[in-house]
Every structure is written in structure tokens, then in C-alpha cells.
Write a structure and sequence with these properties.
Layout (H helix, E strand, L loop, with lengths): L2 H6 L3 H13 L4 H7 L1 H15 L1 H22 L29 H37 L1 H15 L3 H11 L5 H27 L3 H8 L4 H38 L9 H6 L9 H27 L2 H9 L1
Helix pairs in contact: 2-10, 3-4, 3-11, 4-5, 4-13, 5-6, 5-13, 6-7, 6-9, 6-11, 7-9, 8-9, 9-11, 10-11, 11-13
């Protein structure tokens, strides 16, 4: 028999799971993720882009915001002119100028990188911590799982914004870096809770039971059979978390507690307190914040539906 033929044949684990699910008329998405998670993700998202308006709109908005952030990061410093301070929207300045004479549209473009970059960095940190602790807690059970649950309950009982405000007030020198660490520390619990529940569910699936019966060790079970099945939920929750972090960062800047980038969208909104007559200092920065929140919500919902096999089947047959 040729080597290609041997590689193309299903393994014993896949054959057992496929036969069991075929008898019940089910197709387990975890098995597909086990076979080729990258191909599953690509095909699912391509199907979502063809059939889901939220996926198309969310992707388009995300690309637009990403281009803004990249351009703002590569562009030179933005310098204002005092003789053009607080000019309303006009042909020369589409969104008016701020108190320093800077074009508000250019300021928003330059502020996209610190605003979105900080939110993405904090979400990645919280996601990595939440996935690691949630997976270990659900897999090990016992005392580690109990400690994880009590910690999650303690963090979930206090609103995120209140925790950030308290920590920022107690720090001797609040900064943007300390804000990121606080958000990571407070945001990982939600992701860990969802990942832990998914790990407990996946451990009861047929292919994991078969792998354990065939002698797969804990490390292989966790890396090859459990984590690929729970990452989709973590990605969905992380997409929603980006919007939550942007909202918290904006609120911190508007209230004036903590230090953020001077061109961050929240800092631009904070200028409106000193110039209540300049309505454009509220409307346009708030509009970009709302646009970014809408993009994360649409993208998160589209990702959630794309990786749900029942909803994916309904899109194909409906």
C-alpha cells in the first residue's frame, strides 16, 4: 500500500467518533477542528461572509479602523495652530478643529492607534490568561478549579469600570501601562469562566473519551483534543471584550482619572468639557467610539454564528 493511501485513511479515533455520530445523525464540530482547525475556521468564515450581512459589515468596519490605526501610527506628529482653534466644520476642516487648533478628523485618525491598539493589547493579554487558567481549571478539577471559581466570582461581583477607577486612584503614578495591566487583571475572569465550561463539556465528548481509552496523556488530550474545541468561544468573547475595553478607556479619559494618550478618542471627548459650545468635539469622537463598538459587536456575533454548526447549517439550507 502506498504511503499516500495510508495517510488518507481515517485514524481509529476518527473512525470511532464518525461512526457513533453517524448513527445519531450528528456531526461534532470538535472532530472537524481536531482534523484541521485552520481549514475549518477559513471555510466557516468564508461561508459567513457570503451569507451573513453582519460578517460583511463588521469586517468592512474593522478593516477601515485598522487602516486608520496603521496610518495614524506611521504618520508624523500632528501640530495645531492657535489661530484656527475651535473652528466649526467647514470645507477646510471637515470635522472642525479642537482647542489646540488641530484638525479633529486628523486627530481622530492619529488617535485610532493608541485607542484601538491599547484595547487590542489588553484583550490579547486577558484572552491568553483566561484561556490558560480556564482550561487548566476545567481539566485539573479539584482544588485548582475551586480556587479559580472563587476568584472569578470575586472579580465578577464588582463592575469592571469601578475596579479600574479604584485601582487608578490608589496607584501613586497612574499611566497608560498601568491601565492596561488593570484591564487584563479584571477582564480575564469572563473568558476563563466560558473556557472552563467549554472544557468540561468537551471532556465528555466521544472522541476525547476514545483518545483517553487509547492511552493519550493529559498533555496530548489538552493540546490536541480540548483546546481546539474551546478556542472559538474564547475568540468570540475576546471580540466583544475589545469593545468593552474601548468603552472603559474612553470613560477613564472623559472622567479624567488616569493617564491616556493625548490623542486617544476619550481624551478628545474630554476636551468638550472645557468647550461646551463646540458640539463637534462631542459628536465626532463619540461617533468613532460608537463605530468601533458596533464593529466589535457585529464581528463578535458573526464569529459566534460562523462557528456554531447548527446556525451554519441553517444558513446553508435556508
Amino acid at each position: 500500500m502506498k504511503p499516500e493511501s495510508r495517510r488518507s485513511r481515517p485514524s481509529l479515533i476518527e473512525w470511532i467518533v464518525t461512526s457513533s455520530q453517524r448513527m445519531r445523525g450528528q456531526v461534532d464540530p470538535a472532530l472537524a477542528a481536531f482534523r484541521d482547525p485552520a481549514r475549518l475556521a477559513y471555510s466557516s468564515w468564508r461561508l459567513a461572509l457570503r451569507n451573513d450581512t453582519r460578517a460583511r459589515v463588521g469586517t468592512a468596519l474593522t478593516l477601515l479602523l485598522t487602516i486608520m490605526a496603521v496610518y495614524g501610527a506611521l504618520a508624523g506628529p500632528l501640530v495645531g495652530r492657535s489661530d484656527r482653534a475651535l473652528h466649526g466644520p467647514s470645507g477646510a476642516h471637515w470635522m472642525g478643529t479642537d482647542g489646540s487648533g488641530r484638525d479633529v478628523f486628523l486627530a481622530l485618525v492619529h488617535g485610532a492607534y493608541p485607542t484601538l491598539g491599547a484595547a487590542l493589547l489588553a484583550t490579547l493579554g486577558a484572552g491568553a490568561l483566561g484561556v490558560a487558567l480556564g482550561a487548566l481549571g476545567g481539566f485539573l478539577r479539584g482544588a485548582p478549579d475551586l480556587l479559580l471559581q472563587r476568584t472569578i466570582e470575586a472579580l465578577s461581583s464588582v463592575p469592571l469600570l469601578l475596579l479600574v477607577l479604584i485601582a487608578q486612584a490608589l496607584l501613586p503614578v497612574p499611566s497608560s501601562t498601568s491601565l492596561l495591566f488593570i484591564v487584563v487583571f479584571t477582564r480575564w475572569a469572563d473568558i476563563a469562566q466560558v473556557v472552563r465550561a467549554d472544557v468540561l463539556r468537551v471532556l465528555q465528548l466521544d472522541h476525547v473519551t476514545a483518545a483517553r481509552a487509547l492511552g493519550a496523556g493529559p498533555g496530548r488530550l489538552l493540546a490536541r483534543h480540548v483546546l481546539p474545541s474551546v478556542l472559538a468561544s474564547a475568540v468570540v468573547l475576546s471580540a466583544f471584550s475589545v469593545g468593552a475595553v474601548i468603552a472603559v478607556e474612553t470613560a477613564i479619559a472623559v472622567i479624567g482619572i488616569g493617564i491616556v494618550h493625548p490623542l486617544a478618542w476619550g481624551a478628545l471627548l474630554g476636551q468638550a468639557r472645557a468647550h461646551p459650545e463646540a458640539w463637534w468635539l462631542v459628536a465626532f469622537p463619540a461617533g468613532f467610539v460608537a463605530l468601533s463598538l458596533g464593529a466589535t459587536v457585529l464581528l463578535g456575533e458573526a464569529i459566534r454564528d460562523a462557528f456554531d454548526p447548527r446556525l451554519r447549517w441553517n444558513r446553508v439550507t435556508g
